[in-house]
Every structure is written in structure tokens, then in C-alpha cells.
């Protein structure tokens, strides 16, 4: 697959910000006098909220406030809310074929309980999952996106760091996590890419993937999947998880 990101010295997030391909959800092509529809994936880079931390939400907020203060916490929450308002607005402009739209979500395990997880997090106030629920209500299909074992491994690293009160031990856990994180992220991205390849039909269907800014899933997709980037500009700041474990 020829990557959409050419090597030009820019970071992955900068390339995403400069590559908004418009909001046309699917395109027809001519090949050997036969009209066919390529698979479309709308790529939505996101920053996670405290709601995405699940049972670790209280510890996550406390760790952020202890490190950076209440004022920066409120600014962080406001910025993330504005980002999600922008995503919701842009999605509202798309003419999606809802019943042929497949939803992929960073952090959503392939487990058979995908709909339940989305509904629970939407009820708790997650703007990400509220959008997913709204799309599901219109007929879109939610897909288990991630390897549950890899998610548990990531979760345990973060839980270990957040729950450790001893500074020296916490530093050790952070170093262990930083050593493992790049390989863990690559494994997660490969699984996500494979899931999209397996589950996005070749019938004019459209995929939407909500994915954290650190991921590189778009670089691993097969060439028959056309990627469009929804967000023209995303706040280039460290992710919520990175703030917590550094």
C-alpha cells in the first residue's frame, strides 16, 4: 500500500491536519469498463476524555489535577469538549448511508458486548460514545475494533502507575510502560487494521474510525480502502494518557 503520508519531515499529526480530503463519503471509479465502488474509511483523529478511562476515571482526574492544577484541568476539559463539538458538526454535514456505515472505535474490544459498552459510556457522558450511539440509532453498525488482550495489557500498565503512591516505584512503572508502549501500539494498530480489512464490505459501505492521535492505523490499511480525514485541524497537544503517566 502506498501511504497517504509522504515522507516530508512532518509529524503524523501535522500530516493529518494538512490532509483534509473533503467530506464526500464514497466515490465511484471506472475500471475495465465496469463501475465499482471502492471501500471508504473516514478517519477521525481524537483526543480522549476522562470518560474513556472507565473505572480509572476518578484516579485519572486526580492525577491530572495533582500534577497540573484545577485551572488547567478545566481548560483541558473545555478544549476537549470543543473538539467533540467540531467533530459532531462535521459529521452532521456528511451524507452518510447510515445503514451501510460501519463504526470503529479506539479502545472498543472485540468481545460481543460492543453495543452495551457504547451505550454505557454514552450514558456516563462520553461525547465520543454519544456520537456512536446517535449513528447506531440511525442504523449504523458498531464493530469490535481492538484485541481485548492488548487493551487489558495497556489498562494494567496505566492502572499500576495511577495507583502507585511511592514516587520511586511509580517512576519505575512509567519507565517500564514507556519501553513497552511503542510495540504495544503497533500491535494494536495492526489488529485494528486487520479488523477493518475483514469487516468493511466491498459494496459501497463507509467506515468511520474514531482513533487516538498517537495511532498509525491509516498507514497500515490495504490500498483498496480510500481514506478521508474528517478533521482539518486538531489541537496538537499531548494525549490525556500521556499527561497521566509522565
What can be said about this structure in brief?
The protein has eight helices and seven strands.
Q: Overview of this structure, please?
A:
The protein is of the alpha/beta class and 246 residues long. The protein has one domain. The protein contains 8 helices and 7 strands, in the order H-E-E-E-H-H-E-H-H-E-H-H-E-E-H. The chain has helices at 12-17, 57-68, 70-93, 114-123, 127-137, 148-163, 167-199, 240-244; strands spanning 28-31, 34-37, 39-46, 101-105, 141-143, 206-212, 225-229. A 5-stranded parallel β-sheet has the order 5-4-6-3-7, sandwiched between helices. Helix 2 (57-68) crosses helix 3 (70-93), helix 4 crosses helix 5 and helix 6 runs antiparallel to helix 7 (167-199). The longest helix is centred in the last third of the chain and has 33 residues, at 167-199. The protein is globular, with a radius of gyration of 18 Å. It starts with 11 loop residues before the first helix and ends with a helix. The model is unreliable at 1-9, 13-36 and 236-241 (pLDDT under 50).
